[in-house]
Design brief:
The protein has no helices and 59 strands. By secondary structure, the protein is mainly β. The strands form 15 sheets. A six-stranded antiparallel beta sheet has the order 23-22-31-26-29-28, with no helix packed on it.
Length: 690
């Protein structure tokens, strides 16, 4: 840079022009300054550098990086800039203000400075366009009770931009979702249902005297108030320690409970006669949890032998306390018999309360008199009466029971009816129907899919006009556990390709539903459909690229960052990445197995290791992300349903009343024979705490 008297030149471009003087009587025009015998276009006494602003301002933001930005100075000046992170050069071409920065790319680094007419040089400034619409990972809440005192714990995420966790106590419906760009403080009462009890980086919260019935919900956030999906834990999850110990003096039949389980009460009477000790053991459930297929496991006994077991579970002999759930407040008694006891013995018995979810099957063309079959997943076989409940489906022999779901507390099973436009509720604690809702009675409607949101304890369903699901007019409905409608959202398909099965994302914000060749996405918090292609006037579903393969199932990945789709008329698997988030568009589909034609496929399930298992008439298939391969497992049976329960993979065969538990290679480990004949393409587990 060459600085001349009263004139600044950069390269060949002059920043100011000097005017000839007129002696001592020199008068300068407006906008010029006197300097000796000359008038200058700049103030010769100005030693202040210009200040340049950039619009948009860059920095960390949820807005995507624009393709252009505008640089503006606070006084006449030339601006020098680069957009690739290199240093701008004052010997290069400057740009008068305002200057347009072009060809910006994602996460661009813009550097710039300006030189005014007096030659004052602004220090170089750096602005990074840091697009960040991604919150920290959500937490996994744990809840324990000591008496009426609650203790909530979790592990904070390790994301670099993790700033804190909001913990809310919820005593009714969850009617709050943190707003983007907004930070919250502890003690805020959001509504009559929601109070923010803690905000910060602590990873535990004590709530003394809160009593039973509370729910806790947590969101993590970063430094620009991106909020994660919520995680929830409620009183019904807090079973605590389920182990206890009794000692019984055979000679006097005196029973002492040496150790009680957490939030349960064991009580017993005993009778000793001829070497046999008969114990009438009662279990009272003081928790809010519904224990499914409850059992007492005798984990140790000395002296003597437990002689009237109902079966082995987890290596221990057990006594069955079902078929009904061990419901909150219930007190159930069973008789346990111990042989080999002597009159002088004091028998010490260690027990533990166990539960295992039911497997639920139903007929493809359900006979209302014989609709559902319940089976203990730990042992198989019938788990009691009530398998003939019709759930309000009437006498229509073509009533199809769509894949259902279990509510947050594990008590109710919700099932849709393909041809009746109903959602039926089934009380798992009593094995009986517990209500039904029909949408627009007298009009042929279909319930295309039903899903349960564990966080808000609500049910989401898609109801369609017409007798089948290929009508263009549908309604997304959200219901309370008692089947009352909370809100509804009509939506129209621009292609009559039908709606099939959907699922709710972890945390409950998004709902995805398969539409034969596309996937419709909904924001359940905003109560609106997400537009996959904003360039068109319609609200579009996401085009998966599957045109004639019958996309039947869609599931969220465990981290909620992608979708997994399954075709029906072949063995195709579709992995859908969402690099810009659910609402950011730009989804990327990768297909596997589309050339394996003409075989009906069933459901899919993702393991904790990220492998995806697919049931089909061609056997059990598995996608391994570590090797990016999709292969046939050694299972060797046509199958339609898959479900992970407590880390084990359960597979329902296509044409029999058989469920297999397979090992991590896909080979059969053991087999359960179902009660009744079930030929559904899905397999429902009543487990709620996955």
């Amino acid at each position: 840079m060459t600085i001349k008297t009263g004139l600044v030149s950069i390269g060949s471009l002059s920043l100011a022009l000097a005017a000839a003087g007129c002696g001592d009587g020199l008068k300068c025009a407006d906008g010029t300054f006197k300097s000796g015998e000359k008038c200058l276009a700049y103030d010769p006494d100005d030693e202040t550098a210009p200040v340049t602003t950039i619009d948009p301002p860059g920095g960390k933001t949820r807005f995507r990086t624009p393709t252009t930005a505008t640089l503006t100075t606070d006084e006449p000046a030339l601006i020098f800039w680069t957009s690739d992170g290199t240093e701008p050069d004052a010997e290069g071409d400057g740009h008068p203000s305002p200057a347009l920065v072009t060809d910006l790319v994602e996460d661009a680094t813009v550097k710039f400075f300006a030189i005014d007419r007096g030659g004052n040089i602004e220090p170089t400034r750096t602005v990074i366009f840091d697009f960040d619409a991604f919150p920290p990972a959500r937490v996994d809440l744990q809840l324990a009770y000591t008496g009426s005192n609650a203790e909530v714990t979790w592990a904070n995420p390790t994301d670099d931009d993790f700033t804190g966790t909001i913990l809310a106590r919820v005593t009714g419906n969850l009617d709050f979702q943190p707003a983007l760009d907004t930070f919250y403080t502890a003690g805020m009462v959001i509504s009559s249902n929601v109070e923010l009890v803690q905000v910060g980086t602590d990873n535990s919260f004590s709530d003394p005297g809160v009593g039973f019935g509370a729910q806790y919900v947590a969101w993590t956030f970063d430094d620009i108030a991106n909020y994660s999906a919520p995680d929830s834990v409620r009183f019904s999850d807090a079973t605590g320690t389920t182990a206890g110990t009794l000692s019984i003096v055979a000679a006097t039949n005196l029973v002492t409970v040496n150790e009680q389980p957490s939030n349960m009460t064991l009580s017993a009477t005993a009778i000793f006669a001829a070497g046999t000790l008969t114990v009438n053991l009662s279990v009272e459930n003081l928790t809010g949890h519904y224990f499914q297929n409850p059992r007492i496991a005798v984990t140790a006994v000395a002296p003597g032998t437990f002689s009237n077991s109902d079966g082995m579970v987890d290596g221990f002999a057990t006594k069955y306390y079902g078929p009904n759930h061990l419901s909150p407040g219930a007190n159930v008694m069973r008789t346990l018999t111990f042989t080999g006891v002597l009159v002088g013995d004091t028998v010490v018995i260690d027990v533990s309360v166990l539960e295992s979810p039911s497997l639920v099957g139903s007929s493809l063309r359900a006979n209302p008199a014989n609709s559902f079959f319940f089976n203990d997943s730990s042992l198989g076989g019938a788990v009691g009466a009530g398998t003939g409940a019709s759930l309000g489906m009437g006498n229509n022999s073509r009533s199809n029971s769509q894949p259902g779901c279990v509510g947050a507390d594990g008590r109710y099973l919700y099932m849709g009816n393909d041809h009746k436009g109903t959602i039926d509720r089934y009380d798992l604690s009593t094995r009986a129907g517990a209500g039904s809702v029909q949408f627009q009675p007298g009009i042929n409607r279909t319930t295309a899919t039903v899903a349960c949101d564990r966080v808000s304890d609500t049910i989401v369903a898609v109801i369609g006009d017409g007798r089948r699901s290929n009508s263009p007019n549908h309604t997304l409905v959200k219901l309370a556990p008692d089947l009352t409608t909370l809100w509804s959202l009509p939506f129209v398909l621009n292609k009559t390709q039908g709606v099939h099965f959907g699922s709710i994302s972890p945390g409950g914000q998004y709902f995805a539903v398969a539409m034969y060749s596309r996937i419709a996405l909904f924001d359940l918090f905003a109560q609106e459909q997400i537009d996959a292609d904003p360039s068109t006037p319609e609200i579009d579903a996401f085009e998966t690229g599957v045109t004639d393969r019958g996309l039947r199932f869609v599931r969220w990945s465990q981290d909620g960052n992608s979708l997994i789709g399954k075709t029906w008329w072949n063995n195709g698997l579709l992995l859908i990445a969402m690099p810009n988030g659910v609402a950011g568009g730009g989804f990327v589909s990768t297909a596997y197995g589309m050339d394996q034609c003409c075989t009906r496929s069933g459901d899919l399930a993702e393991g904790t290791d990220g492998r995806i298992w697919v049931a089909s008439d061609a056997g059990l298939w598995v996608y391994d992300p570590a090797t990016d391969t999709y292969t046939n497992a050694p299972y060797g049976q046509p199958c339609r349903g898959v479900e992970f329960i407590d880390g084990e993979l359960y597979v329902m065969r296509s044409a029999s009343n058989t469920v297999d538990i397979v090992d991590d290679t896909g080979a059969i480990d053991r087999t359960i024979t179902l009660n009744g004949t079930s030929r559904r393409h899905d397999l429902i587990s009543t487990k709620t705490d996955d």
